[in-house]
Amino acid sequence: METNLTVNNPVKSFVKMNSQCAQVFEELNIDFCCGGETSLFSACEEKGLEPEQVYQRLMKLPSGEATSEIDVSGLAPAELIEHIESTHHIYLKQALPRLVGLMDKVHQVHSSRHPELIRLKTVLGKLREDLELHLLKEEQVLFPLLRKLDSNSLDLKMRVVQGPIRVMRNEHDEAGELLKEIRELTNSYVPPKDGCQSFQLLYKELRQLEEDTHLHIYKENNLLFPTLQSAVSV
Ligand SMILES: [Fe+2]
Ligand SMILES: [Fe+2]
What we know:
Blueprint: H1 11-17, H2 21-28, H3 40-46, H4 51-59, H5 77-110, H6 116-150, H7 158-185, H8 197-231
Residues 84, 88-89, 138, 216, 220 line the site of one fe (ii) ion.
């Protein structure tokens, strides 16, 4: 990670620069939220940690952004499935538990002044539950079926894949509705003026979740499913 930051900069500056620093701070029990103004040096000393060691660990973190985009339009179905699993599914499996943990923390501290967080917590919890189950269905039921179809090892009839694909499309719509509600509740991801570092991080990560999930759903609904539906016999 390239940066001008030193151990004398406030803890919150590190999280602002790379959201993955938050996970390291959580693990080390360094408060990057309401105590975010403290320098990294002082925060480490307070916890009996060696500041330089912590600093070096932060510098080794990869970029904290969600999955980067590549051109997938020419991929064969099996390759596209591989791409979806290795980018969007992995991203969700890592991001959803992290987001729910962060949500709990922000809710606990700020919901008295920001009651919208109560509904936001419920909606995010529901989205996590739905998406985790959805990933499981794709990875264990639909994708193995589609892989067999793609390699011509299975003579599938349209009705065999049509049912699961219809279910997946419906679940995509439901996830889209929940994301829409999250956007409304967060004022399009603009944190309040009194929002602390955790609050800002939560909104930033929710925006990434929306971006990545929209792309993910687009690829399944518009690239993967139509190719396969046209390839199977009626
Ligand atoms: Fe998926
Ligand atoms: Fe999906």
